[in-house]
Specification:
single chain, mainly alpha, Arc Repressor Mutant, subunit A, 13 helices, about 60% helix, disordered N terminus
Length: about 350
Amino acid sequence: MIINITLLSNLPGNDSRPEAPVGETGRVGRRPNKIVTERTRELIMDSGRKEFLNVGYQKASLRAIARNAGQTTGAIYAHFRDKRDLFDALTRPVTDVLEAMFVEAQGEHFGLVETGEAHRSLELSTEKLRIFMGYIYDNLDSFRLLSAGAEGASVADFIRRLVDLNTAGTVEYLKAIRDAGGNPGAPDPEILHILTTCYFTAAFEPVVRGMTRGEAESYIETIARFFNAGWESLLDFGGPPTGPPAGPSGNESGPSGKASGAPGKPGGPSGEAGGVSGEAGGASGEAGGASGEAGIASGNAKRDRGKRPWRRTPRKRPRSGRSCGSRRPSGGSSLPQWRCRPPAWPQGSPRTW
């Protein structure tokens, strides 16, 4: 019996052709379009960025992100493993670039040691801080996402990575300065780590507080002056080289020395005159001291005259009887007994008690 292979291959269920791939739409037989795929990824990332900024990482929902992007949650999982993977896709590119810029800046600091310009360390740090802040504000939305608070991908986590890099690099940098003959000091690494944490935390405050670019530029100048003054009090990066220039000027110092010795004879009379003027100055100093003491005494006298004179404290008016000034004596005495103030004295009478 001869079996027709062609007829069997055409029977239902005997299709030996490979299955066509399933695209994003779920329809069989249509391969995914690369342009459509990239467009979908962009829509999801834009929707995720808005969702994270509005409600934060913890409250963000993949369903809300898909709905706002006009996609399904299946489309999100086709591009990202989970919500954290989407968050990292939004923040990791810019943070990686900033870390690379930071490592490059450390290399430039080591170049200052090789050229003998370690005294410009703080100046270079301030210049790099301006560049870093400019890059942050060029990608402000991505850096603001770090404030959303994803575990392991927040502002604090990013600052911690920068602090670890800076602390290790600073220890090596100070060692390089000592190897070059300098004496920058050796602060405790733990203290150095704490101070560096304060520095980077302050540097990222414009992002956390939502400052404008102009406000941030003015702010970093203030914190740069503040922290540079603190670093100068703890570390000694040296100063620019000073002193007379070397070379042929040493040969010319001989004749100038002879010329300076010649006019030494007439120095005697001027010395005597200087002594006389010194004695006169001493006498005037003594006179000035005496006048100063007199001024102090006169000032004390004026102060004493300005005080209120002493007064007798008035007694209380008696509960009964006449007023205190007109109370008549008892026992046949002719003198009044005053309790508050004496009455007016008659004209011409002696004022004796």
